[in-house]
Amino acid sequence: MEELPRVLQQLWGFEGRSRPGPKPAFHISDIARAAVKLADAGGLAAVSMSKVAAELGFTTMSLYRYVDAKDDLYVVMLEHAFGEPPTLPQDHGWRARITAWAEAFRDGLRRHPWILQIPVQEPPLSPKQLAWMEAGLQAFDGTPLTPQDRLSAMLLVNIYIRGATQLTANMLTDPDAVQEADRLYTQRLTMLATTDRFPGIAATLELPPDEGFGGDFDTTEFGFGLDTVLDGIQSRIDRLRS
């Protein structure tokens, strides 16, 4: 059987292969906290082996006793940033459970938007990441979905959350700035989107100020999109039950 990468051995608490040198001065979780702190302050571009080492007060070479490459550093960062999955409401149906899972996942991305910049090169294998996967799959307990259906449904929700959060990751957060940006955008759009050429856009401009392009995209539109995704999963469940 192929040996697990050293970073996974450490995250799972397995005894990794021994290396010569002094006794480790810190734990893999210390590296994770230092790297996440840098990323939260300056984005993923602010994270490097040398900067993480400096944050810990050690040399860059000392980090290589724990992580072999920057991709390993990303693994421990994700493990720390997401933490444990939420406790899902077992007294409710699958829809309430996967909604709670989705909202917790979205909240994690909002707290650490740099996560969206990390390339997804392979499925997760770290303890907490697998716990998130397991929670997402168990959200569909009580449905006729097959194991493959559950995996596909969970991935569909995951992809939607990532896409929706990515779209709003760089948007303004100050309420006054958002209001002014919306006003300016609507004003310019009204000048450009004439009824004869862009009738669909023009129709949205006639909606109340708190709807259409002036609505709360980060909340209202996210909920609409998630409900629509779940409606599709519900349709599949209904077909399997019929």
Automatic annotation (TrEMBL):
<dbReference type="InterPro" id="IPR009057">
    <property type="entry name" value="Homeodomain-like_sf"/>
</dbReference>
<feature type="domain" description="HTH tetR-type">
    <location>
        <begin position="25"/>
        <end position="85"/>
    </location>
</feature>
<keyword id="KW-0238">DNA-binding</keyword>
<dbReference type="Pfam" id="PF00440">
    <property type="entry name" value="TetR_N"/>
</dbReference>
<dbReference type="InterPro" id="IPR050109">
    <property type="entry name" value="HTH-type_TetR-like_transc_reg"/>
</dbReference>
<dbReference type="InterPro" id="IPR001647">
    <property type="entry name" value="HTH_TetR"/>
</dbReference>
<feature type="DNA-binding region" description="H-T-H motif">
    <location>
        <begin position="48"/>
        <end position="67"/>
    </location>
</feature>
<protein>
    <submittedName>
        <fullName>TetR family transcriptional regulator</fullName>
    </submittedName>
</protein>
<dbReference type="InterPro" id="IPR036271">
    <property type="entry name" value="Tet_transcr_reg_TetR-rel_C_sf"/>
</dbReference>
<dbReference type="GO" id="GO:0003700">
    <property type="term" value="F:DNA-binding transcription factor activity"/>
</dbReference>
<keyword id="KW-0805">Transcription regulation</keyword>
<dbReference type="GO" id="GO:0000976">
    <property type="term" value="F:transcription cis-regulatory region binding"/>
</dbReference>
<dbReference type="Pfam" id="PF02909">
    <property type="entry name" value="TetR_C_1"/>
</dbReference>
<keyword id="KW-0804">Transcription</keyword>
<dbReference type="InterPro" id="IPR004111">
    <property type="entry name" value="Repressor_TetR_C"/>
</dbReference>
<dbReference type="GO" id="GO:0045892">
    <property type="term" value="P:negative regulation of DNA-templated transcription"/>
</dbReference>
